[in-house]
Amino acid sequence: MSLISSPSRVLFFSTTLIGVFLATSSTSWITCWMGLELNLLSFIPIMSSNQNLYKSEAALKYFLIQALGSVIILSSAPTMIVTSNNSPEITIFVAALLKLGAAPLHFWFPAIMQGLPWPQCIMLMTLQKLAPLYLISYLHSSNNLVSFIFWASALSALVGGISGINQTLMRKLLAYSSINHLGWMLASLFCSTPVMFNYFIIYSLMTISVALILNISQMFHINHVISSSFKSSPLKLYLFLSLLSLGGLPPFLGFFPKLLVISVLTTQNNILWVSILLMSALLTLFFYVRITISSVTLLTPKSKFSTKAQPLKSNLPLAFTLVNFIPISGPMLTSPPF
């Protein structure tokens, strides 16, 4: 179901954006909390869909988790005024990890993803992560906080890579891929806020390009991708190359933000951090390559999971996937005509 299918959804989507802007541009903890609450209360109605059998379960789980994170933030922020240690900031960091769905507090994220349609999954994987990430960037840097960021980043990267190998459902696969990218985003947040924002924008573009194709073809299982009758060969090619870009394979778009994070961490002599992130990147790239190779080499026209492709109403979603090929087309566009 489209997010702009009714005026009420347009209203709730607008207030969701307002909540994100309020949380990311606030100068006090109370206004930041208000932005998070406005974002939460606006996203709950968007999650409700008549086409979704698990809308009540997913919405209730999401509300309880996000409300718990908001309560922790609201109770921890005032204590920063009366205490001189870093314990309130650590508590706020843990609450932000809970809102993000980062490891080791990731248990709710794949389950809620599995109960949502693809448009709502796109919002959950992209827009809903921006405010908690900026919340972490507001915290004062200390040795304890850096240690917590390191362990959360390493665990998120490894959990997302290892858990995604055994998944056969595409929404859970992208959920664990998002957890893996959260590990990279936490590492980029340690580098600087502009590096994190750069990584978040490129990650959002890659995730949207993949989810749009899966939404067009109504694919929810790996066997749907492997044995599906695509409307056209370019659609299949765009999906596989977008998956490889999401996995960070050069020379696609997804490789360059990871290269930037690796270069900054290497300059700061964080070799162990870089090694863990690279290992996790190989794991995520493995299950994307596995899907691609299986789809190209296996022929199962009578599979019980086969599905017919939906007719394309617009070429805009396919045109959006071309952002993954910008690094390839860039040198070609700047080359001389002879």
Short descriptors:
single chain; 338 residues; mainly alpha; disordered C terminus
In a nutshell, what does this entry contain?
This protein is mainly alpha-helical. The protein has 17 helices and no strands.
Walk me through this protein's architecture:
The chain has 338 residues and is mainly α. The protein has one domain (7-334). The chain contains 17 helices and no strands. The longest helix has 27 residues, at 271-297. It is globular and about 65 Å long.
* N-end to C-end Cα span: 48 Å
Largest sheet: none
Rg computed from alpha carbons, rounded to a whole number of angstroms:
20 Å
Q: Give the topology string: H per helix, E per strand.
A: HHHHHHHHHHHHHHHHH
Secondary structure tally, helices:
17
Low-confidence segments: 300-309, 332-338
Average pLDDT confidence is 83
Number of strands: 0
| Dominant shape | globular
How many structural domains? 1
Helix percentage range: over 70%
Structural class determined from secondary elements: mainly alpha
Determine the strand fraction and express it as a percent band.
under 5%
Write the layout of secondary structure elements.
Blueprint (H helix, E strand, L loop, with lengths): L6 H19 L3 H19 L7 H22 L2 H4 L4 H14 L7 H7 L3 H8 L4 H8 L5 H23 L4 H22 L1 H25 L4 H6 L5 H14 L8 H13 L3 H27 L18 H5 L5 H9 L4
Helix pairs in contact: 1-2, 1-8, 2-3, 3-5, 3-6, 5-8, 5-9, 6-10, 7-11, 9-10, 9-15, 10-11, 10-14, 10-15, 11-13, 11-14, 13-15
